[in-house]
Amino acid sequence: MVHAVRRGRSMRQVAREFAVSLSHVQRWVRRAGKERLERVDFTDRKNGPNIAANRTDARLEELVVEIRRHLKDDSALGEFGAVAIHRELVRRRVRRKSLPTVRTIGRILERRGALDGHHRVRRSPPPPGWYLPRRQAELDSFDIIEGLRLEGGAQVEVLNVVSLYGGLPGSWPRSRILSKTVHLAMLRHWRAFGLPIYVQFDNDNVFQGAHHIRDVIGRVSRICLSLGVSPVFVPPRETGFQAAIENLNGRWQSKVWARFHFGKSRGALLSQSGKFVRALRRRCAQRIGSAPPRVPFPEAWQENLQEVARGLIIYVRRTNDRGQAELLGHTFDVASNWPHRLIRAEVDLEQDCIRFYALRRREPDYQPLLKTITYHIPKKKPYRG
User: Based on the domain organization, do 250 and 352 belong to the same domain?
Assistant: First the structure.
């Protein structure tokens, strides 16, 4: 543009040719002046002065740093943060117009590198399924939404499921979720889509069985083991393990329960929940197709709750201050040098043992064997479910 103007063309013509405003051309011509084009600095500059009008005076910044140093070394109270510095500036009767706020003092200290605290280090999360023996294997997570009520006080509970890698969802609203409800929902879901390698639950009695009785393998676990699926029980009040199913629970409540008025009709709720699940499966079709393969449901399988349980049950637990872990109604000594840490307990019902592995989110690939304990499920009365 400047070159065209210097060759004798009017600024207005140049502005039309380059599809810019006249003031735009005038600004660059003014910037170039009479200098040779190769010597002109054409880099863009921000509008306004180089120094912000509201910037704190350098002498005041030095005073803030000096006061912090004085308070840290000589203050009887031992406080030398932004609030204490602001209080000292007021005591020294710094002019009200120049007096910086507590937040500004904090920014001055940060800018001058005068803060003792360290920023939190954000580490990358461990990969999906990092706590399992086989990481690249599909896992179904089941969980229950409780505390919902239709008009008139009718109770509603919802059993949800989602797969770890494929995001394959399922949902069954019922008046009450029992072990048999979970059992039937699992079979229906797996007959339609195939078996995962693992199935994950929290420690609800519905999933795990009675907590007050030792060596209990509940109905849900027995069904899983008879199909060759390893049940996984994750620790209570631990973040991350139930993230996928909790996300689905939240979406179901906001997109189904909170969006529509069902009145007293449980049928309307079932219908809308079914529509939501089918729409979600269509949306996740590509992800579901690229997930680790599922095992076809065995056609010859027959339900038998009296069958001797075989296979692997996995408990993820956190040890206490003595390095002990609680599972199956027992307290096991795992490792005194691993207190308040995560462990994976593999209850091998065929080898009659429990293997304890150390787990760390920072080092998901390092899972050393801590201890192996001989363990055998004692024979009891026939299972009655």
Answer: yes
CB 162 within 8 A of CB 141: yes
Tell me the C-alpha distance between 376 and 171, whole Å. 36
What are the residue ranges of helices labelled H in 82-130? 82-91, 102-111
Q: Look up the domain containing 101 and give its range.
A: 58-111
CB 348 within 8 Å of CB 267: no
31 and 84 within one domain: no
Helices (H), 19-173: 22-32, 58-74, 82-91, 102-111
Coil, helix or strand at residue 247: helix
**Rounded distance, CA 263 to CA 281, Å?**
27
CA–CA separation, 299 and 281 (whole Å): 25
Do 313 and 206 lie in one domain? The reply is: yes
Q: Which letter does DSSP use for residue 234 in this model?
A: P
- Residues 227-249: pLDDT tens digits? 999 999 998 778 889 999 999 99
Strand partners, 358: 343
Same domain, 263 and 385: yes
Q: What is residue 319's three-state secondary structure? A: coil
Structural domain total, the chain: 3
At 232, list the tokens.
């996984």
Name 356's bridge partners: 345, 371
278: CB partners within 8 A, 6+ apart: none
Summarised one tens digit per residue, pLDDT across range 79-102 is 888 999 999 999 988 887 788 899
- Tokens matching residue 237: 């009040």
Query: Distance between CA 353 and CA 328 in Å, rounded?
Result: 13
Q: Are residues 68 and 187 in the same domain?
A: no
Q: CA-CA distances (angstroms) from residue 247 to 49, 115, 198, 250, 273?
A: 49, 38, 19, 5, 16
